[in-house]
Amino acid sequence: MAFRDQSIDAFMQELSSKAPIPGGGGASALVGALCAALTHMVASLTVGKPKYAAVEAEMNAVLTQTESLTNRFLALMDEDASAFEPLAQAYRLPKETEAEKAEKARVMEAALRSAVKPPLLIMETCALAVPLIALCAGKGSVVAVSDAGVAASLCRAALEGASLNVFINTQGMQDKAYAAALNQRARELLAQYGAESEKIYRDVLTKLGV
Question: Could you give the CA distance from residue 7 to residue 69 in angstroms, rounded to a whole number?
Fold first, then answer.
């Protein structure tokens, strides 16, 4: 069963168990989905209000995009779990002989390359969400501005969580140049969109008079 089809309680039970999946990657994707869904809510509360007629078209576009992003994040929960399975199996391979060591190293490298993709995609999906959150925080219904702030906070958490899953996978790679390129991409996403998410959150605090 896909994670999105489970009850909240069932997912939490799996997340808190000894099973390696779902783990931090799946949790980060779920947080990203919550971020996108909250942004969708703010746009929904804005559309159709005469006071916000000037931004109706922008908010309708946000509705379409955040629905797509929510579904993408939810799909990434399962993609992350599927990508981790071969890595978990690779860790269990024997390494008694030189031939076994070489085979394990080969399989591990391929598994790490696969496992690093979903968390990087989570980060890139967060990057797509940030401008939509900013739009809702700046032009959306004032009664939901705090929700836009929560969305920004969640987006930053998803970014940071996913980045850790990138870094732990690149750490074990033999191809250091490839690992360095992935780390650089993750750091760039974290720096730019983490900062932008933080700014949205701070702007919302200011609007609330804090």
Answer: 20
